[in-house]
Description:
Elements: E1 17-19, H1 32-39, H2 52-62, E2 69-72, H3 75-85, E3 90-95, H4 100-107, E4 111-116, H5 127-136, E5 141-146, H6 158-167, E6 172-176, E7 198-203, H7 204-207, E8 216-219, H8 222-230, H9 239-249, H10 252-275, E9 280-281, E10 288-292, H11 296-308, E11 311-315, E12 326-330, H12 334-344, E13 361-367, H13 374-387, E14 392-395, E15 398-400, E16 404-406, E17 412-414, H14 415-424, E18 435-439, E19 444-449, E20 452-458, H15 459-462, H16 466-483, E21 486-490, H17 508-514, E22 518-523, H18 529-538, H19 542-545, E23 548-556, H20 564-574, E24 578-583, H21 595-603, E25 619-624, E26 629-630, E27 644-649, H22 655-659, E28 663-666, E29 668-669, H23 672-682, H24 684-693, E30 698-702, H25 704-709, E31 712-714, E32 725-727, E33 735-751, E34 757-768, E35 775-778, E36 784-788, E37 794-797, H26 806-819, H27 833-847, H28 850-858
Parallel strand pairs: 1-11, 3-4, 3-5, 5-6, 6-7, 13-21, 13-22, 14-21, 15-18, 22-23, 23-24, 25-27, 25-28, 28-30, 30-37, 31-33
Antiparallel strand pairs: 2-8, 7-8, 9-10, 10-12, 11-12, 16-17, 18-19, 19-20, 26-29, 31-32, 33-34, 33-35, 35-36, 36-37
Helix pairs in contact: 1-9, 2-9, 3-4, 3-8, 13-14, 13-27, 18-20
Amino acid sequence: MNRRHGGLSPADSAEILDFSANINPLGPPPWLRDLISREIEQLGRYPEPDAAGLCRTAAGVFGIEASQVVAGNGATELLYALCRAESRRSAIIPAPCYDDYFDAAAQAGITVRELPLKAEEGFVLDSDALAEAIEREAEPVLVILGAPNNPTGLLPPRESLIDLMRRFPGALFCMDESFLDFCDSGRTSYAVEGLVNCVVIKSLTKFYGIPGLRLGLLLGSPELCDRVRQELPAWSVNSLAQQVGKRALVDREYAEASRATTSRLRKALMQLLRGSGEFTVYPGEANFLLCRAQSRRMAEEIADRLARESIVVRRCEDIRGIDGRYLRFAVRPEAELARLAAGLDNERQHSSRPAPNRRGAVLMIQGTSSNAGKSLLTAALCRIMTRRGLKVAPFKAQNMALNSSVTPLGGEIGRAQALQAAACGIEPDVRMNPVLLKPSSDTASQIIELGRPIGRYSAADYYQFKSRLWSSVTESLDSLREEYELVIIEGAGSPGEVNLRRGDIVNMAVALYARAPVLLVGDIDRGGIFASFVGTLEVLPEDERSLIAGFLVNKFRGDPSLLSEAYDYMLMRTGKPVLGTIPYHRDHGLPEEDSVSFKESLKESRNGTGEESAGDANLTIAFIDLPHISNFTDLDPLRGIPGLTLVPILPDTNEDRLLQADACIIPGSKAVVQDLVYLESTGIAERVKRYAAERRGLLLGICGGLQLLGTRIDDPRGVESNLASKEALAILPYATALAETKQTRLRQAFLEGSSEPQQGYEIHHGLSDWGDLPVLLRSPEGDTLGVRSETEPVWATYLHGILENPLFLRRFLDEASRLRGKPPFGELPLYDLNRRIDRFADQVEAAVDLERITALIEQQG
């Protein structure tokens, strides 16, 4: 750390929180990395002399001529150049102040008169005292003032100073506006007054968060600027800094956001420091606050105590005009303020306030793309950390999926979060997925908030709800963190989708809110994974990029040692390590997040040809691949059963593939009427009707599939479509009406002729009129949850998850076998989801650097 000025050096630990340097708490503008990357090719040329283009941009911003602007390598360089350029013999400097005011004047041979700012008067500048000091000087004097002052953060009285400038035209007033842009009020630069005896110095370094780049401006008369320019090298400002300066000066959006954020955080810091009971806090307007402890020893003890917590503050014993009782605290982001609060409260040495509540730690899994494996890796980490004794919960702020599940209280959440809850050994909860989007067309989705549908909206309309939904997201996450020791958060798609960043409520917005370390997952089986890692980081602004803790390479086939050179490159290129190489798992047997992954897993068993690898399969079960297929995980219990083959039916599938199947399943649908139109237009509807009429095999409709099997679907309120009514397949004699109220609940049912309860869940808008059809499944309360045909081998049920029940699965397969003249199906493996989770978690645990991942969790305290 630079004890004289504050601020850490690159050699200091990244874990240290720096409250000593007064840099914008927002960090650099989000466009900084993109601009620097674009301008790297300019490094092979000399910069523009005297930064002429930057000076023209600054002149336009401040309404002056380009000849009135000088650019420098930081405000301090310009301060020293100004003092050298001036022939003045004396200077007046109110103190306390930035010590380089004194040093710059002394190095130029200028005699300095210190004008004390009195602590008992709140360090407020006395204009009359300054006027008297100027009058006492025999020579034209240089006056150097901070506007606002550093370290007090106070603004001098503007009108009085302007009067003094006019009253003493022979004096030169240097106004240091390095922190002026942070102020809530009085932000107008003195440069606009047009006074030839006023020169302004501005720091872009501090306001734009670029201390490693450095950039400052001096604004004054053309004659003065020309003299200052002669004191500087022609290439004082490098080409990158020049381009950054030109962009920064016209970025009004970032400037306003910086002021608003600084104002809010400054108030929070002031409340925190005053509430500690250890300080007198001076109400500055900059991005820092000056505090006075009761004694020098107390100030030293506080600073040392914070240092033990890896928190650095500015000790002020070397600042002229104040003593060792003073400390200066920079305004920093909320998460750092929370750590400061804990540090001030440490060991409860000086405070009677109750200790802050400890919130659970967080870890976030994001991906370079959809289908990178985020959901299953999150589930695996949930199980791994649960087995290590932590109380863990999953969380995904917003999920877009047709695969959903029902909580014990009847709320609807993403199926992936239900799986992750099972991995944690807990019941699913709507807080784990506060926002669920279920697409009902290419342009609209049903929005489910905290388990309940709130309407069907287009993508454009959805953005109107984001502020409301963000509250549900943050409240749910906060609530889970109060209850659990660790919350493992899953992102969605990729944080690199720049077109979605402004409305983000699921990726980096959540990571920033929770200050969550992020593991970035990529699918190496797709190719281009390392470019995807680097590219994702390149489009992230610095505050988001800093949260990426490392990479996970997923779905790798081969020897991981072959990737060592690539991993070395990644560490060199990004500064972030690869923390795991997870092998490709063909047979994990876990429910997939989306239908793409599910269908790809089916292809793995077919020699890459689309045909079964085992021609003597005991049973072949076809399923209709609907465009809006929903809860396709109903088919999961059939996967991996020896002797059983699943075949998706698409428009280009040979008709014999369906007609020769032993059974056919029509799964759920989120847009039943649209999928019915699809079946008719592709000819699949006629094939299904023929399959049933010719008794080719057992036909099973689940939920939306049940509704498709009926005679008619009515949707008068436009719940799922714009068609008020549509004739269905008419295989079973019942009609369905789609109601606005959605049924979402766990259910028990008894299979016809059995007293053994079957488990499942309902998620549907439809109400079906069963007539006199034989009951296949009935609830203990007497509700009909499934029916069968009296004449054809056709079953239908509203219960998702019904095939997970061994009794129902056995009867389904035996009936399919009987209809085709085959013997009863052989022994069925137990569908043990818990065992499958354990097996997959074992494989992931062996493939990742768990020690370093655990450290990311433990370092959160």
